[in-house]
Amino acid sequence: MEEVLAKYFSGEATNNEISLVETWRSESKTNAQAFFDAKNVWLVSQPETAPPSQVLDEIINETQGKVVPFMMRSWVKYASAAVLVLAISLLFVLNNSETDNVYSTQSMADGSEISLHGSSSIEVIAFNDEIREIKVTGKAYFDIERDETRPFIIHTENARVQVLGTSFLVKANGEETEVCVESGLVGFSKKVDGSEVSVKLTKGEMGLISNSNKGIIKRNIRDLNYLAWKTKVITFNESTMAEVEQVLEDVYGIDVSFDNPEFKGCKLTAKFNKKKPKDAIEIIARTFGVEYEFTNGKAILKGKGC
Amino acid sequence: MENEEVIVQRLINKDKRAFELVFNQYFNVMVLYASRFMDTRAEAEEIAQDVFVKFWEKCDSLSEDSTIKSYLYRSVHNSCLNAIKHDKVKDGYRQHVIHVMESTYQNEFNEDDPDALRNRIQREIDKLPPRCAEIFKLSRFEGLKYQEIADHLDISVKTVEVQMGKALKVLRESLQDLKNLRDAS
Predict the structure, then answer these.
(1) Whole-angstrom Cα distance, residue A61 to residue A152?
(2) How do residues A51-97 score in pLDDT, each as one tens digit?
(3) How many CB atoms lie within 10 A of CB A245?
(4) Which of A87, A92, A65, A64 shows the shortest CA–CA distance to A234?
(5) B4-111, what's its fold?
(6) By CA distance, what is A279's nearest residue in B?
(7) Whole-model pTM above 0.90?
(8) Do B27 and A40 touch (CB under 8 A)?
(9) What are phi and psi of A302, to 5 degrees?
């Protein structure tokens, strides 16, 4: 038996040997204790390794994330030569950054930072001593450096967002423009029959301008995860798996599918704090007690779920 | 740990550097401890990580006479016990592990010094027949696969299997007296 045990612990055992060991250790108390002792011998004879500094960083940063939820410490600031050349031509579309496959962050000359989700893009209209003006398509998070002498203006197909210094999200798809305010005060306006309609939005509020609607809709932000693609903090509160699927796609850029469509109706309450995509999937699978597969950014959850 | 009182005071003040010291000293020890009970290293690492996350979150409410080491051991012990109890599969082996863990709950963890254990096992390995010790060391310390050991020593894989089994058996028997390897009941 010791030979098979040694193979079991050193990862040399065949599937048959693994089940042999796992059956054997359950057969009697003596066997169980023999396995337990042998395993301990194996463990204490392992070489000492350095403590994982990456885990330490994660712990310190994860907890900080809870205290100051939207302090984006690890924003990627990069300005490659290519980006600079494009910026000079006043038109640049950012590529995904090296550190995250769903967004990239660009620092502007005034210290403002813009994070672009997926294939979203911005176009610089004017950026000088008097005005800061850009156009956005898609979804972008802005952290604007305060400068009262130079307003920051963001144009979309059908709306205008004007700020002095604040942080907020803009989502624009041509049909609709949505603004969610994270801090500060945001002016949100549109042209109606030649005159301008405008609302002021503050922290926790969102505004929606839609081509199918005359006015500007203003309400509190309900989507718990509107910034999760950037913060990697995801909250589900009785969310259906169909919603979960959307959020995970948005946050991690992964494709989630179910081999049984009934699973989509199951509800999940959970919080993921800067988890890796695979870990998030694994937690969900465990929550529902189902199996899963995760390869090349594609996750498949198996079974009925609930 | 040196100046434990000072470290505890710094932890109460949420001193990152103090946490780093504690982490560096105890993280691997805790993974090792959890590995005794959990089936996979991944599970053991997850438990240790969760314990350190909670420790860092709550360390500002430590009492001044806290002992970091026993706090960590106790947390890991309880987390492992909980995890195994909540495991769907409770075969004879896991039942036994639960029994061992429940009966060692109040043990003095201070005897659990991994450095002393490491020295002890090193001495026991040196007492093995030379070939047997060499093979065991190549596997455990150098991380070689059986096939690699066989190639390196120009022997058959079967011989490696036999010698590894022998080493494990002898070491297990010679370490029987270690209290922390035993069922305390």
Answers:
(1) 31
(2) 888 888 888 875 443 332 222 222 222 323 223 333 333 333 333 33
(3) 20
(4) A65
(5) Rna Polymerase Sigma Factor; Chain: A (1.10.1740)
(6) B46
(7) no
(8) no
(9) -110, 145
**Which residue type occupies B75?**
S
At A262, which CATH number? 3.55.50.30
Asked if A116 and A110 touch (Cβ cutoff 8 Å), the reply is no
Contact of B60 with chain A, judged by CB distance below 8 Å, is answered with no
What ipTM was reported for this prediction?
0.87
Helix, strand, or coil here: B135? helix
**Unique residue bearing structure tokens 């496959």:** A101
Distance CA B30, CA B49 (A): 9
Domain of A35 in residue numbering reads as 2-44
Identity of the residue in A4, A5, A62 whose CB atom sits nearest the CB atom of B53: A62
- Name which of A3, A33, A47 is nearest B165 (Cβ-Cβ): A3
| Beta bridge partner(s), residue B77 | none
- Asked if residue A59 lies in contact with residue B58, where contact means CB atoms within 8 angstroms, the answer is no
State whether the Cα torsion A191-A194-A199-A201 is positive or negative.
positive
Alpha-carbon gap, residue B22 to A101, rounded angstroms: 34
CATH entry, B114-181, from 1.10.10.10, 3.40.50.720, 3.40.309.10, 2.115.10.20: 1.10.10.10
